[in-house]
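Write out the bound-state structure for zinc ion.
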Amino acid sequence: MLTSSGVPIGEIPAALDGVHSKWQAKGLKSLEIVPLGNHHFTVEASVNPTAKANAKGTVDVDVPPENLSMDQVTATSFASSTTAASGVFSPDSEPELTDIMTSGAGQKELKLSDSQEGAHAEEQVANRFQGSWNVCNNEIANALSAKQKNSKKPWFKNVRMMINVSKSSCINCASYIVRFTRKLREKSSSVHVGMKFASLYRGAQEVPKSNMDEFGDLVRLFVEKGRLKGTNRLGRLWGPSSIFGNKRERITEVSGTKDAGKAGLAILRDAGIAVDVMAQDDVKGKGNAEKRERLKLRNEKLKTALDEVEQKLKVKKG
Ligand SMILES: [Zn+2]
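---
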């Protein structure tokens, strides 16, 4: 916990110490003691950029994910096939930050919670958060009575997940993140999921059957029929299940074009996930003029694609 919801006055020094040590390294700007009445106080932390205290007195710290570097978002040729991602996940007021993950982890680096070899960067971030979410929910479930467990009342007030990725999500990462977001919505009264991308994904993709069954309409809204090829080949699923269940499904090959990138954006936006452009101010390091120009161009292309996606989704919804 960042702080208890209203600490007795004698415990304020300890509460301050706790909040201070936890947030110091993450850009803590100031601590403020806010009286709650009844000799109780809460500690409000200001962490870059903002911190908010909610009505109950617990502290909801709006911590951003770690910024990717200018080099990571402007990589070209071979290096650009490595995607980087970082994230922050806060079920109520306990933010968890990931380090920057890169795509294509080799088999040796994989942990139990990871997907199989070749996991995409944001997939690894989501795996990590899904693991924590499961642990957290199991703990709560164990502490509840059977009656409480069956109640429809959400266990969480406010869940927030922000993920930064150097390239926009492919169809499979987008599908996986949408499914995880649904799980969050089942258990929380308010859920905010937002993603920031520096550029538009254009790689070829192998989309498993379950994703085509569920999100195929959105894919076909952007990708011409000729660029979707059904096959008898089996491919992996996204998320931790691909290593545990060793599940494989028949795949559809999607040619690498900007339209395939738009399909990924559409899957996220259609599910109410916020998508923003990761501009120069959002990355570490200024780079040189050439890199800044490259990032600007990538941002513009992403923005154009995003506008088109918004427009088509609006038309589709009437
Ligand atoms: Zn992906």
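---
The chain has a mean pLDDT of 80.
The first helix runs from residue 12 to 23.
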